[in-house]
């Protein structure tokens, strides 16, 4: 299988967010043997490396692009970005008609009135193309409903973090946003978030939440890691157990300098010292977090269980296990059907229709797993094992999140967690399947961030 290219995929995601699916799909459909390398270059470097840089949000970058393309007379790009700014891509990053007008007026001073004249004419044509005449009093309301000016955080888009690997076997890949590792001059970290994905995905599933955590707690450290057999972590060569996955988690926390329990010793590496860990786990990642906390309660300060099964085997595990077990021995049509079956469990029907590009990206991620998926099979087997004993976790602050349409961790199972975690909070995401952080990122963050804020600080 073709290796999964995270930079390319993140670039495509940013490009779709800014320009909209329809335009990007048309552009990609024109790719051929001659321009494919250029398409890949644009997606990696323009849309990932530049549009994904720290410091500026997408609304600010839209404004810059409009001014620069107008000043240089790059009218094809100017029209593209005016149209996208008013009606395409992510609604939260769109510009209002008045903001576009102000860009044109400002540009008239620094780029010349003739350029601004052309810009006004092209922008007016686009407004009419969108079915709106500027004479309509409700133009602004219809083009940008309920869009209010928002304060831009100090770090509007903190990027994807720096990559590291644990020194243990298997080597685990992890990224660090916020407070860096290995800097003696950096003050001790008072809060650390560790985000663990579920079976078949990888650390990229947490991009939006990880960026939001850094924006909310600029002095914190936010760590996203790949389970063995996933992403850039080493692939297992033999069967593994839940205990092995928990041991991996201990090794990761040791690498971070996280507080250790009496059973693992105390890490004295002040250069990487971390505060108490808040573990945010999805699916299997939540199960690992529970087992980790049961073994070493001193290592965790709080636990978020996102779409984590309480007892039964996840509904998607059967097609996923078949997909990973058979590997290259299975014909392509069967593997495609198995991947489709997994997507039907991961995403709700409405989301699969409305956000086909996101579904395709994660389907491609699943099919491009190491060794054509065979490396995932030992982990899939471990995921089906007995759930950890959580009777000792009653004092650990816990948030439980699942989707109302989640067939892998349905609301009935989410409520079982409340019996094991007295005092835990429960949030149901309406109309969401198994990957709520992707289907409803705003609601997911609105559930997690205030709850974390409410916890007593160490």
TrEMBL record:
Residue intervals of the AB hydrolase-1 domain = 193-444
A molecular function annotated in GO for this UniProt entry is: peroxiredoxin activity
Which positions fall inside the Carboxymuconolactone decarboxylase-like domain? 37-125
InterPro entries per record: AB_hydrolase_1, AB_hydrolase_fold, AhpD-like, Carboxylesterase_BioH, CMD-like
Which PANTHER family does this entry report, sorted A to Z? HYDROLASE ALPHA/BETA FOLD FAMILY, PEROXISOMAL MEMBRANE PROTEIN LPX1
Supply the name of the protein. Answer: 3-oxoadipate enol-lactonase
Origin organism of this chain? Aquabacterium commune
């Amino acid at each position: 299988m073709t290796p999964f290219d995270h930079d390319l995929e993140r670039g495509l995601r940013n490009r779709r967010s800014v320009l909209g699916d329809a335009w990007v799909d048309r552009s990609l459909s024109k790719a051929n043997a001659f321009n494919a390398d250029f398409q890949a270059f644009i997606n990696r470097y323009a849309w990932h490396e530049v549009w994904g840089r720290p410091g500026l949000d997408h609304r600010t970058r839209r404004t810059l692009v409009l001014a620069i393309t107008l000043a240089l007379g790059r009218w094809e790009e100017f029209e593209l970005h005016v149209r996208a700014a008013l009606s395409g891509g992510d609604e939260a990053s769109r510009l209002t008609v008045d903001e576009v007008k102000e860009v044109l007026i400002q540009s008239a001073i620094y780029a010349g009135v003739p350029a601004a004249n052309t810009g006004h004419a092209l922008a007016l044509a686009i407004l009419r193309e969108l079915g709106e005449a500027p004479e309509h009093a409700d133009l602004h309301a219809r083009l940008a409903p309920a869009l209010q000016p928002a304060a831009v955080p100090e770090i509007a888009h903190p990027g994807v973090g720096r990559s590291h690997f644990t020194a243990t076997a298997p080597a685990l890949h992890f990224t660090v946003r916020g407070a860096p590792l290995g800097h003696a001059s950096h003050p001790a970290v008072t809060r650390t978030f560790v985000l663990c994905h579920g079976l078949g995905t990888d650390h990229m599933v947490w991009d939006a939440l990880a960026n939001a955590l850094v924006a909310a707690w600029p002095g914190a450290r936010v760590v996203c890691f790949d389970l063995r057999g996933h992403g850039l972590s080493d692939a297992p060569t033999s069967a593994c157990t839940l205990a092995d996955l928990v041991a991996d988690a201990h090794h990761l926390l040791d690498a971070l300098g996280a507080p250790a329990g009496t059973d693992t010793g105390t890490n004295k590496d002040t250069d990487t010292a971390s505060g108490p860990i808040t573990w945010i786990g999805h699916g299997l990642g939540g199960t690992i977090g529970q087992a980790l906390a049961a073994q070493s309660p001193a290592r965790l300060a709080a636990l978020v269980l996102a779409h984590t099964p309480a007892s039964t085997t996840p509904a998607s595990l059967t097609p996923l296990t078949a997909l990973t077990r058979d590997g290259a021995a299975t014909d392509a049509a069967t593997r495609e059907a198995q991947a489709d079956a997994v997507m039907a469990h991961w995403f709700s029907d409405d989301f699969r229709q409305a956000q086909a590009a996101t579904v395709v990206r994660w389907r491609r991620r699943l099919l491009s797993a190491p060794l054509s998926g065979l490396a995932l099979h030992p982990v899939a087997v471990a995921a089906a094992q007995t759930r950890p004993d959580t009777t000792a976790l009653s004092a650990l602050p816990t948030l439980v999140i699942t989707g109302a349409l989640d067939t892998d961790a349905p609301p009935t199972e989410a409520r079982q967690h409340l019996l094991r975690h007295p005092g835990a909070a429960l949030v149901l995401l309406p109309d969401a399947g198994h990957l709520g952080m992707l289907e409803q990122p705003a609601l997911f963050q609105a559930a997690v961030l205030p709850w974390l804020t409410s916890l007593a600080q160490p």
